[in-house]
Amino acid sequence: MTVCRDPLKQDAGRSRKARGHSSQPLLHMFSSIPRRYDLLNRLLTGGLDTWWRKQAAEECLRHASGPVLDLCCGTGDLSIRLANVSGGGRHVIGIDFSGPMLEEAVSKLRARRLQRRIGFVRGDVGELPFEDACFSVIGISFAFRNLTYQNPLSSQYLSEVIRVLSPGGRFVLVETSRPPNALLRAAVDAYYALVVSRLGGMVSGHPDAYRYLAESARRFYTSEEVCGILLDAGFRQVDSRPLLGGVAALHVALK
User: Fold this and answer.
1) Over the stretch 140-159, which tens digit does the pLDDT of each residue have?
2) Which helix (H) or strand (E) holds 248?
3) What is the biggest distance separating any 2 CA atoms in the chain, rounded to whole angstroms?
4) Structure confidence by residue, pLDDT tens digits, 183-213
5) Following CA atoms 75, 81, 117, 253 in sequence, which dihedral angle do they give, to the nearest 10 degrees?
6) Whether 138 contacts 171, CB under 8 Å
7) Alpha helices of 87-235 — where are they, by DSSP H?
8) Contact 85/59 with Cβ under 8 angstroms?
9) What's the angle, vertex CA 72, arms to CA 17 and CA 240, rounded to 5?
10) How does 214-232 read in b/e, with b if 16+ C-beta sit within 10 Å?
11) Whether this model's pTM surpasses 0.85
12) For the stretch 178-202, what's the b/e string if a residue is b when 16 or more beta carbons lie within 10 angstroms of its beta carbon?
């Protein structure tokens, strides 16, 4: 496996692609909401997001060797979960394009005294600041739809994920999904529209951000469609597991 360059010694935020993508609407949106982002995640999911991230972290570490990459790490929830589940035996690197999100992540890191086990890098998924075949596992929690839902750059993003994965490496993603049961799907749609969008907007003070988050979740792909997207991108095998009747799903894609 190719050895990673030390990302903590690089200014990933200055990469050519990161500068070029800095005007993306999602960057502005996610940079405006970190202060209450974690609170709303817990509130709007009833705390289930922490349980689902724990399952993703356990899946990430099942066959991991070397450091683990937390893609689109946001405020660092999955990174911290990975460090805790590994019991100190694994270094975690989190990357995100939002400076305010990473500032919140660093604050959480310091509060938990995990600075030696987790490092955060500012950078864009369109040009990851790592060597080819650098990671045996990459995890992403509740950000995959931001890379793929109505995103014209989705193929480029997935190509970069594949590039930095070692042969046989695993891409583990946990994301909202479309339940196959029609009644459950209708109930979830109503919850997104009436609770997530309105309550999230009111508590965060950024209604447009939570309107997007609710709408992208409500219109996101089924688990089968996500498998198809990953296979079309070049992964050789994808396994999926529904969570809470398909409200969310855990996918594992093999390079």
Assistant:
1) 999 999 999 889 999 999 99
2) strand 248-254
3) 51
4) 999 999 999 998 888 888 787 787 887 888 8
5) -90
6) yes
7) 99-111, 144-148, 154-164, 182-191, 197-204, 207-218, 223-233
8) no
9) 120
10) bebbbebbbbeebbebbee
11) yes
12) bbeeeeebeebbebbeeebbeebbe
Place of tokens 């990671």: 135
The DSSP string of 203-237 is: HHS-HHHHHHHHHHHHT---HHHHHHHHHHHT-SE
Tokens 């600041």 belong to 129
The domain ranges of the chain are: 7-176+221-254
DSSP state of 73: -
Q: Specify the DSSP class assigned to residue 44.
A: H
User: Token digits for 145?
Assistant: 């739809």
Q: How far apart are CA 21 and CA 123, in angstroms?
A: 10
CATH of domain 7-176+221-254: 3.40.50.150
